[in-house]
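Technical note accompanying the year-one report. For the benefit of new consortium partners, we illustrate the data format agreed upon in the data management plan: each record pairs a sequence with a structure-token string. No post-processing was applied to the example shown here.
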Amino acid sequence: MESLSKKQVEDFHDHGYVIIHGVLCDEEIDRIKSGVMRRIHQGNVIPRSQSYPAPAITFTIDRDNVEDPDLAYIATHPGIIHAAETLLGSPAILSAFVCYLKTPGAKGTSGDYQGSHPTAHQDYKTYQHAGSSLNWLFAITPLGDLDEKIGPLYVSPGSHKLSSIRKMGNGVHHVERAQAEKVAPLVNANLRKGDLLLMHMFCWHEGGPNQANRDRIGIYNKFRAANAPPACGPNLFNESAAKALTTNNRCLTPHHSDRHVTNTRLLIEHDSKYLMVRHRRGEDACQDSWELPGGNLQPIDLKRPHDAGNVIHSLEQNVCEQTGIEVPWMTYIGDYAEGETLCRIYAHPLTGKKPDMKCNTDERAEWFSADQFKQFAKNRQLINGYELQVIDHWLDNSYLRGVGESKRRALPGIT
């Protein structure tokens, strides 16, 4: 695959997508299909309640399945990665690896989550791990012709321009999402076996139902810019998958671990000060110890395999119980080791009047400057030890940060 031409780059920015024909040859497609079928027959498929090839089912193979070398092949395809990086203007991160396999009779796509269209949608979502980045794109590769019978992929030219990003302050940006009634009519992309469709994150699209007598199968990867982290938090690849995706001495998956996220904490900033919660280490402790507000994951955030990275609901509850502060949104900072597990850290900048706090009887919350944090670190009063790193990361203006929401806020009435 050659580098994108100037016209192809212009088409992407003008229309919200660009199609490169014949990126994969038949031999490569057969290789990728073999990997897909191998993972299915090994039971690494969603839904687990159905057995392939049950009719009218959309089977999904995602994330850690790229440890299979034939699937790692498409995820690390140098031509696709180079094209993505050209359009993103940045080194690319593989934020989601997904293969959809629709057996005959499977439905088409569902509508936009905000309810403005029954079948078409765009995939920027404040609650979804890959979709909550502010600079990402789809890399769609059908492994068979998407004709009228099997279900075309439809796209709306120029629809990506109707959504906008505006800065909220404190380095965080908000997206004004377009509604379906404002977008241009969708057109058939006429994708054929081995083509590559690179699609802007704001582009409206729709996949048709499978009315053929054969499977509809394709790779739907999402690449994001390295400086545009997922606002609601990433889904972690395991170490085997990350190793399989390391090529030319660079890893496409910086968010990887065999450890599990079991804790989550929040860096709350107000007027260049940060909120900490005190904990005494026994009655005879000569000095207080401090940590960021937060706590263990709640059951509701432990039962969502597709959006496992979004643990904001737990943090909303924990912070409110500890401090009385209601946090409407937050943005992902990083994952830090706490013993044998990981703690996921988010941040939220408060504006206006400093909020009143209602702390638990056995806790006290206070605001401290970064210099006071340094003194705490010197005195070994920081319980976890990573707090200064969190502040440095939060203050790094090279990151394009967005708004992350819990699913209950983004989708009222959904649990």
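Partners are asked to follow this layout when depositing records. Residues 104 and 210 are 5 Å apart (CA to CA).
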